[in-house]
Amino acid sequence: MAFVRALGRLVRSEPEPDLSTLPVWMDPIELSQVRAVIETLAPKRVLEWGAGGSTRELLATCPFIERYVSIEHNREWHGRVREIVKDPRLELHLVEPARPEPPLPGAGGKRPTTADRELLKAWRLEAEQNPELMADYVALPRTLDEHSFDFVLVDGRARSFCIREGFALLRPGGVVLLHDAQRPEYHEALRAVGRPVFLEPWKQGQVCFVRKPDAA
């Protein structure tokens, strides 16, 4: 019930995210759902794959977080996050893939083509299927001095692998949360680690979370 009350409160009162510096690529309802989960859990140690507006937003609104480890694969975006987010609790890591991700269609002012879109789509799908493409990105948390977490946010690349790895690194009672959970390529990994809870409504990307059972 605490989660339901927190969700209702945040859905009613959550302000529009500040898109002027570092966008939060979630609909406000989805950001409210993430906030409801994290406010209810009140984690001290957070792990995130996929840095960006969520990094800025959660650090700005969650004073109970003591350590926030974020892993990004894109060098340019990593630099932008580092420039904007100055919170000392943030540990931001750049881990590039074994083979570079194709540029976004239309990047650099070029006219986007169907071939560009298909190339990017194929690379991202391979990242969900080929463990070697982003192996170092997925494995980075285990190289840290402390590698157990209360809350894991998966919102980057190779999400199927990050879900499994993030769940393994959770403390008992912790939560792994996935954005864009409506995509079927993530469902096998979600069900492999526990009982996924898919939240409604959603507009841009569905939020889903799995809680790790408490220790016996």
From TrEMBL:
Top-rank taxon: Bacteria
Protein known as: Class I SAM-dependent methyltransferase
Species whose genome carries this gene: Plesiocystis pacifica SIR-1
Source lineage: Bacteria, Pseudomonadati, Myxococcota, Polyangia, Nannocystales
